[in-house]
Amino acid sequence: MNKLHYLTATLFCLLAIGLRAQEVIPLYPDGQVPFAKEGGEMPKLTVFQPARNLAKGTAVIVCSGGSYGGRANRVEGIPACNKLMEAGITAFLLDYRLPKAEKMERKEIVPLTDAQRAIQYLREHAGQYKIDPSRLGIMGFSAGGHLVSTVGTRFAESELYNPKGTSLRPDFMVLVYPVISFADSLTHKISRMNLLGPEITAEEIKAYSNELQVTMQTPPSYLSSGMDDKIVDVRNSLYFSAALRQYRIPVELFLYEKGRHGYGVNNTQAQVQWIDDCIQWIKKERYKK
Q: Which superfamily, per CATH, for 29-288?
């Protein structure tokens, strides 16, 4: 074996070891999955633990997008988790259940319930993962951003069994080219249809338009969008940012002149990346508390 082949083989071995060591947490270890029908999937968290000398106790749950019909973990969630981990932030990739009527009851609240369960589980097991339960944020891309903004505006509403009364409010949110509104003029209609179905009422549109659900208790937020996004209108981010400012909630808005939908953590059309700025924001936000 020549030197190049040896180095390549060594690298693959190290990667394989790292992947094997990565812990996967079933969200409902007792098997009692809310609203599940027979044959439904088990939602899970995958842990991205930083090196011990880098870890500072902050944690972020990461929700990939995919129009509520898939999860773009490869291009969004996993790269984001790796970036956070490298910065000393413990990341948890959330594989929330996709809303499918044949696999669950009340499919419209299942992703929210899973995200709330992730917050509940991590707060109640914070010591196990050496995280500070008061430094727990949540990040979402595209439809995952809709899920995250729902978590941040509807944390007082839950169908989750919560006997300890654990807070379901994230300490901060990160929303990347997010779907925020379900209004006809703003929404990503595929995401809306996958979550709520084709027959949607005016009341449901209002309830799931999260720019209308902001209160004084909504967490501080960081948003990134591309001005030229043709899939999810940048006004979703602008309207949500404006609503937060009306309640004097800290918000940072990182806009790209060119940033087509789905750029993940690496916008190839830009020199400065939102993720680096966001990590600095997370660290500053942590020290404000």
A: Alpha/Beta hydrolase fold, catalytic domain (3.40.50.1820)
